[in-house]
Design a protein that fits this description.
The chain folds into 3 domains: about 10-75 and about 95-270, Rossmann fold, CATH 3.40.50.300; about 280-375, Rossmann fold (3-Layer(aba) Sandwich); about 390-525, 2-Layer Sandwich (Alpha-Beta Plaits), CATH 3.30.70. The longest helix has 14 residues, at about 220-235. It has an 8-stranded antiparallel sheet. A 7-stranded mixed sheet has the order 2-3-1-4-5-11-6, sandwiched between helices. The protein is globular and about 80 Å long. Helices cover about 25% and strands about 30% of the residues. The chain is built from 15 helices and 33 strands. The chain is of the alpha+beta class. Guanosine-5'-diphosphate binds near residues 144, 145 and 256.
Length: about 525
């Protein structure tokens, strides 16, 4: 379906790979559903919602998801609209999953920021925006729930500009709000879209034309005329370049629930959002239009089917064409790997991908060969950067209820760590494994999964450590000296890299000052 579409544009130029960032409850799920409907990826509204309620067999593997009603897994949905192939990467909704979300955002080229019109910028939106800003990801803003009582549009634009330091360019303007919300006015095209009228936008003579005024109750018409005049004078027009550089956001007002403004939004995304961008690797930058296939793994999802220990590695194709059955080189190990059954994901099902292009995300089934951050190429020895690991903020020792199963636990922890559920630290003094997480919920996820998938009941014990840092040095001798002097505070991470653990930020600082040739880092690039 995807390969067969007739078009002039190159397959890469047609791709738009994006995520939706928002605070819980702003309307991400509802908007996702409406976007997929436009793309014909699902037939009935409500299917994404059904997934949220955790009734589908696919998500049953994790009781915790059902209990808490949150989305723990990151997935990808592909759909076509207006000659474009959209890859929507779903980011986990809960704030505890910032690492996973962060990694997902390394794989997108643009993002839709959904804001609740009554609430404005909320904590999580802001945090996710900051992650996008690190890579200058262009942001399209959707102000949602205009059908409810909402804040003044100027106020909302002002808040975006001030709190995010991001210029705004409203594309349309709400006609009325809350109960009197009747539609939107396109500021550049002078067209009107009516709520509940599924038709093309109608051209009008201007915002004060009778056709527009009649949409509002008489007592609101003067205020509207004044407001729209001000909007046209005071607001910046949309410009492509500052948008693509991440400095300016086009703003669409609408209501996902009423499926209003969503078409304008997706049209905007199709027209303005960038095609797949080049990606930095250690030795050079790889451009999306290069002919040879490269890609990196940003997410591993294991045990989607608990009966088979299958793992899906989600890989973003960065350049070239991936074809089913091709041989790729896993650069970390130098070994070849046959991509015999790469998969595309749609709203509910998966399908074998015969070919995928830069910007696409494919699922690669494997039995533990692939890890987060891995680079696959057609032979070139390059490693993509920028899928980082953050120093965990919580450290716990894992206590096994049945000591006979220590070996099995070690294997299970290794797998969970490879999948990115937790980070695993093996103390050099031989004491029990320590797991580290950024958010506490991940500890519950680990416990639940060890029980459900491996039959291993565990408990957690506090450790005396609260903080850890990866340590490196230009002098191997200094590093080895530091390690042997502090052996009881050193652990190896999953890749065998040394980690220094401290009891408090204060004691960490103390040790840092006494070891000037050692670098203490709270971020590690996966390699
Ligand atoms: P998420 O947590 O961001 O995925 O938010 P949901 O899409 O689940 O929406 C949260 C709630 O807001 C649900 O009850 C939706 O029905 C409701 N909602 C979403 N969009 C709109 C909208 O445009 N108008 C109104 N009135 N409610 C909405």
């Amino acid at each position: 379906m995807i390969a067969g579409l007739m078009t002039d544009a190159s397959p890469v130029a047609r791709r738009r790979t994006f995520a939706i960032i928002s605070h819980p409850d702003a309307g991400k799920t509802t908007l996702t559903e409406k976007l997929l409907l436009f793309g014909g990826a699902i037939q009935l509204a409500g299917e994404v919602k059904a997934k949220k309620n955790r009734v589908s067999a696919r998500s049953d593997w994790m009781g915790i998801e059902k209990e808490r009603g949150i989305s723990v897994v990151t997935s990808v949905m592909t759909f076509e609209y207006d000659d474009r192939v959209f890859n929507l990467l779903d980011t986990p909704g809960h704030e505890d999953f910032s690492e996973d979300t962060y990694r997902t955002l390394t794989a997108v080229d643009s993002a839709i920021m959904v804001i609740d019109a009554a609430k404005g910028i909320e904590a999580r939106t802001r945090k996710l925006f900051e992650v996008c800003r690190l890579r200058d990801i262009p942001i399209v803003t959707f102000v949602n729930k205009l059908d409810r009582e909402s804040r003044d549009p100027f106020d909302l634009l002002d808040e975006i500009e001030k709190t995010l330091a991001l210029d705004t360019a409203p594309v349309n303007w709400p006609i009325g709000r809350g109960k009197s919300f009747a539609g939107t006015y396109d500021l550049a095209k002078n067209t009107v879209r009516r709520l509940d009228a599924d038709e093309e936008a109608t051209p009008v003579n201007g915002p004060d034309s009778p056709a527009v005024l009649e949409m509002l109750p008489p007592e609101e018409r003067d205020a509207w005329a004044e407001e729209i005049l001000l909007a046209r004078e005071a607001c910046k027009p949309f410009e492509l370049q500052p948008f693509r550089e991440g400095h300016l956001t086009p703003v669409y007002f609408g209501s996902a629930l009423r499926n209003f403004g969503v078409r304008d939004l997706i049209d905007g995304l199709a027209a303005y959002a960038p095609p797949p961008r080049g990606q930095d690797a250690d030795l050079r930058r790889v451009e999306a239009e290069e002919p040879r296939m490269t890609g990196f793994v940003f997410k591993i999802q294991a045990n989607m089917d608990p009966n088979h220990r299958d793992r899906i590695a989600f890989m973003r194709v960065c350049s070239g064409k991936l074809t089913r059955g091709m041989k790729a080189k896993l650069v970390r190990t130098g070994k070849p790997m046959s991509l015999s059954a790469p998969q595309f994901f749609f709203a509910r099902n998966r399908a074998i991908a015969d070919e995928a292009w830069a910007g696409d995300v494919v699922g690669i089934p494997n039995h533990g060969t692939l890890r987060i951050g891995d680079t696959l190429t057609e032979g070139e020895d390059i490693l993509f950067r920028g899928v980082p690991s953050f120093a965990p903020e919580i450290l716990r020792r894992v206590k096994l209820q049945d000591a006979m199963k220590a070996k099995k636990l070690r294997e299970a922890l290794q797998q969970m760590a490879e999948e990115g559920v937790v980070q695993l630290f093996l103390p050099q003094d031989g004491s029990g494994a320590i797991v580290g997480v950024v958010g506490a919920l991940q500890l519950d996820v680990l416990k639940e999964r060890l029980q459900a998938e491996y039959g291993l009941p565990i408990d957690y014990e506090p450790t005396r450590f609260t903080i850890c840092r990866w340590i490196t040095s230009d002098s191997r001798q200094d590093l080895e000296g530091f390690i042997s002097k502090n052996l009881s505070s050193i652990a190896d991470d999953l890749d065998g890299a040394p980690v220094f653990m401290a009891a408090s930020p204060f004691s960490l600082r103390y040790d840092e000052e006494r070891a000037p040739t050692i670098r203490f880092s709270d971020i590690k690039d996966y390699q």
